[in-house]
Design a protein that fits this description.
Strand content: 15-25%
Helix content: 25-40%
Radius of gyration: 18 Å
Strand order of the largest sheet: 1-2-3-4-5-6-7-10
Number of helices: 9
Shape: globular
Oligomer: single chain
Largest sheet: 8 strands, parallel, barrel
Order of helices and strands: EHEHEHEHEHEHHEEEHEH
Distance between the termini: 9 Å
CATH superfamily: Divalent-metal-dependent TIM barrel enzymes
Length: 277
Amino acid sequence: MPYPGCHVSIGKGYYEAARAAHRQGASAFQYFPKNPRSLTVKSWDATDTARCARYCGEHGLQSIAHSSYPANLAADEPEQMTRVVDSLRNDLEIAEACGSLGVVVHFGIYKGDDLLQGYRNIIRSLDRTLEGWQGRAKLLIENQSGEHARMGMTVEELAQVRQLSRQPEGIGYCLDTCHLYASGQWNGQDEASWLRRAQDTGVLAELVAVHLNDSLHPSGSYRDRHAGLGEGCIGTDALRRLVTAEGLRHLPLVLETPKEADGTHREQLRLVRSWLD
């Protein structure tokens, strides 16, 4: 079963977020478990999350959570790393309660002189977050565009971080098509080459979700600016070829694109579904 989806607000709660996604024809959705600008640990309504999980089960909805923007896995300062770890663990707990597949977290940004230390920090942050974790929800590392740091763009990096973790079973991946294109790892024509690398490194087997976005800027620009499907430099033909490839077509394909005039993603969802039917 294909899972075209979109990002929705939890302004009215997790259950209402699931309903909002379903009303516009989505089979999947993404949400921020809490304020996306803060690392504050949130107390949540267990009744609301249980209703969300039940509703998703009844309607065949898949969901993923997205961590707060300040959650930098490569953070150097001990106090900041602790805040990131506590926030991510909180996100995992909420995602688990909602029946979600996992929590998307950006690969990490490190601007110090010793780049290897940045990778060590990422692995340590992942290990600390997953220590003792028994839930089904995973941390889903997202590939990066290279805009803020030339890290996390290649499948080799993604694979190595997971392999070096003490809890690799708690780690999966989220592929962002705009980031893949902007980083120069895909030019809109060579998806077969990228897919082979993803398969050879084991990344494809651990891919849990896709952020389906067009790109406002050319391949190799390192600029992370999403566009509506067919309204950017990638185009619908290239996006269709990529997401209908074996290993991707049955994953949640979540739009992070601008909303349409009616405030939904209804028409883009119909387009994606036409690719998959």
